[in-house]
Amino acid sequence: MIDEISLEILKILQEKARIPNVEVARQVGMAPSAVLERILKLEKQRIIEGYEVRLNPKFFNKGLIAFITVKTDENADEIEVGRKLARRPKVQEVHYVAGEDAFLVKLRGADTEEIGRLIRETIKSIKGVQLTKTAIVMSTYKETAQFPIDDGDKTS
Length: 156
Fold this sequence. Notes:
Blueprint: H1 4-15, H2 21-28, H3 32-44, E1 64-72, H4 78-87, E2 91-96, E3 103-109, H5 112-123, E4 129-136
Antiparallel strand pairs: 1-3, 1-4, 2-3
Helix pairs in contact: 2-3
């Protein structure tokens, strides 16, 4: 069960993962050792799955985002196709979606030529992929892995 203090700790860490433990303790009104113990427990329970640094993709010439819908053959093993897509290092996200298409894949590249090459080499080369459709992102107004944690979200 996640109590109110653990929820508050998660909110703080989600906002700024590099915040010093002492500062988290100050914000929730606990001793730093008690906060550290809670964080370690949340990690062990896999409620906290890890910590990442967000890099500026434009600095690495990866400013163009493409979302690709992937339709599989009728006889394709969709689970295996999904796993193969997920193992591709250039693929940022793979989602199995309801509807006509099977997967929604997110790629980043320098330009449309690179995106086209990645689709050919990374997606269409997988056995079972029948068809792809690509949407190129023109502008991004929000992109985050964070999500709101409400007090009603407690799980046991």
